[in-house]
Amino acid sequence: MAKPVSIEVWNPNGKYRVVSTKSMPGTRWINLLIEQDCRVEICTQKKTILSVEDIIALIGDKCDGVIGQLTEDWGETLFSALSRAGGKAFSNMAVGYNNVDVNAANKYGVAVGNTPGVLTETTAELAASLSLAAARRIVEADEFMRAGLYDGWLPHLFVGNLLKGQTVGVIGAGRIGSAYARMMIEGFKMNLIYYDLYQSTRLEKFVTAYGEFLKANGEQPVTWRRAATMDEVLREADVISLHPILDKTTYHLINKDSLATMKKEAILVNCSRGPVVDEVALVEHLKHNPMFRVGLDVFEEEPYMKPGLSDMKNAIVVPHIASASKWTREGMATLAALNVLGKIKGYPVWSDPNRVEPFLNGNVPPPAACPSIVNAKVLSLPVSKL
Ligand SMILES: NC(=O)c1ccc[n+]([C@@H]2O[C@H](COP(=O)([O-])OP(=O)(O)OC[C@H]3O[C@@H](n4cnc5c(N)ncnc54)[C@H](O)[C@@H]3O)[C@@H](O)[C@H]2O)c1
């Protein structure tokens, strides 16, 4: 028998039982569920990462839907437990769902939701922050200052890289990669080289138009190029930011060989998923290339860092906070709750998961639809006409 896990209960007499494995920001998501006759149970166990056994205990004998987190292992065991409890709805509170075995969910007919769109700009802003912090050595300089080592201005003190006119390389130019590219191009007048399996026409059009605007104002225009291989990006870019999904094709995309391809003074930023980078190879590269700098939001085996990484002055490390703005985290909670609610109520799936604004306006009721269900096609779920 699984050990009981502590919970907080909202609307105890609600008809549908919805479990959230974590407390999530804001209260709108709770209210939206309660208004539709859900009993909401939120796990309050003081444990950052819940085990499969903990979640089985939370699911219990009767559960209509679960809102889970990217730190949890949603596979065969949990989807079969949810299905046995009568549940057909699950949503990750994240856009990435590499922690979810979607085939297992399909097998049990469980819809898998995610939360795209709402975290695009916030995540891109953190990638931009890490790029700037690495280029201008902000963390090192802050530590130096606090240690009382500053004894006056010096020509060589914390000299870093100027971004203007340099080349930004984006690997994975989807929603977040494109938003990041635009920030670096518009904000710092960098040129773009990108690699993606698909052409990013909107991004290309943006850079072309911005380049023309700069030219018309007597400034050097910015340029773009879609690289045929990732190596071209690695060779040519001064700042490289990683934004692909994590799957078999992107596991250790950045390894010993790809690091050796980059410029000695390049900056590498990772706000995608830790295993996209071979972290052991990265530590070695940082040791031997003191001018190479890295900004990391994600790690290969979270919450741990590979040995030696925390000693590297040329690495900036933050604890997976790329989506951590109030608006975004509250929006993610809302989208995750509405994915689960929509499936329970038999609503159709929203036609465009990139256009989730109608679900985020707290002043009006959200559309009667699931904002984003990744296995909607496989499960033949109806699509909203709204
Ligand atoms: N650090 C964080 O807190 C945080 C927050 C949000 C998202 N993320 C991560 O960012 C990822 C991207 O999010 P998004 O909303 O931009 O997704 P998206 O699907 O819009 O973009 C992903 C892009 O990667 C491309 N891609 C896939 N395989 C590739 C490959 N082998 N090489 C090059 N490109 C490839 C896709 O074609 C797509 O354009 C998520 O899957 C998630 O893992 C992290």
From TrEMBL:
Domain D-isomer specific 2-hydroxyacid dehydrogenase catalytic: 35-347
Pathway membership, UniProt: Photosynthesis; photorespiration; 3-phospho-D-glycerate from glycine: step 3/4
Biological process, per Gene Ontology: oxidative photosynthetic carbon pathway
Reactions it catalyzes: (R)-glycerate + NAD(+) = 3-hydroxypyruvate + NADH + H(+)
Source species, domain of life: Eukaryota
Keyword check for rRNA-binding: no
Localization in the cell: Peroxisome
EC nos: 1.1.1.29
Domain D-isomer specific 2-hydroxyacid dehydrogenase NAD-binding: 130-322
Molecular-function GO term, any one: hydroxypyruvate reductase (NADH) activity
Enzyme class: oxidoreductase
PANTHER family membership: 2-HYDROXYACID DEHYDROGENASE-RELATED, GLYOXYLATE REDUCTASE 1
Annotated protein name in UniProt: glycerate dehydrogenase
Species in which this protein is naturally found: Rhodamnia argentea
Top-level taxonomy: Eukaryota, Viridiplantae, Streptophyta, Embryophyta, Tracheophyta
